[in-house]
Amino acid sequence: MNIAFIAHDRKKDEMVNFVIAYETAFEHHQLYSTGTTGTRIMEQTGLQIHRFMSGPLGGDQQIGALVAQNEMDLIIFLRDPLMAQPHEPDIIALLRLCDVQGIPVATNIATAELLVRALQRGDFAWRELVHKYKPGESQ
Ligand SMILES: O=C(CO)COP(=O)(O)O
């Protein structure tokens, strides 16, 4: 599965602790992140993560481009609901595209935990069918 991690600054410690706790659940998947979030996770785990730009510089949009193509299977986006972000439109656009494509997205740690447990159980297998039978692409 293609999984993306994104966390705003005051949520980064929570994200790192979450990924440490579930490292074995993530280790056999293709992992992506915005710039600083990915650096923080890689510093404290053994995971390899493809890092895009930092969020305010366009990282949310880069992940959004993969979402638009229905390439992402799970997004864990720990947003800071109490701090205005300069790139708020990018954040809204990313979440909107997740809803357009019906991609599971967690915006808080409680939902993230439920989704990672679903991932461990194999509940994301339907996403393999999405990749296999993408409309407009040859099979
Ligand atoms: O701003 C972000 C998401 O909107 C996160 O970006 P960083 O991971 O680079 O801090």
Average pLDDT rating: 96
Instruction: Give the neighbour order of strands across the main sheet.
Output: 3-2-1-4-5
Distance between the first and last residues' Cα: 18 Å
Roughly what fraction of the amino acids lie in strands? 5-15%
Give me the secondary-structure topology.
Layout: E1 2-7, H1 12-21, H2 23-26, E2 30-33, H3 35-44, E3 50-51, H4 59-68, E4 74-78, H5 88-101, E5 105-106, H6 109-121, H7 126-132
Helix pairs in contact: 1-3, 4-5
1,3-dihydroxyacetonephosphate binds next to helix 3 and helix 4.
Binding site for substrate: 8, 12, 34-37, 54-55, 87
GO biological process, one term: methylglyoxal biosynthetic process
Catalytic activity: dihydroxyacetone phosphate = methylglyoxal + phosphate
Outline the structure in words.
There is one protein chain. This protein is of the alpha/beta class and 139 residues long. It has one domain (2-124): 3-Layer(aba) Sandwich (Rossmann fold), CATH 3.40.50. Helix content is 49%, strand content 14%. The protein is built from seven helices and five strands. The chain has a five-stranded parallel beta sheet with strand order 3-2-1-4-5, sandwiched between helices. The chain is globular and about 40 Å long. The chain starts with a strand and ends in a 7-residue tail after the last helix. The model has no long low-confidence stretch (mean pLDDT 96). The protein binds 1,3-dihydroxyacetonephosphate. 1,3-dihydroxyacetonephosphate (13P) binds at residues 6, 8, 34-37, 54-56, 59-60, 91.
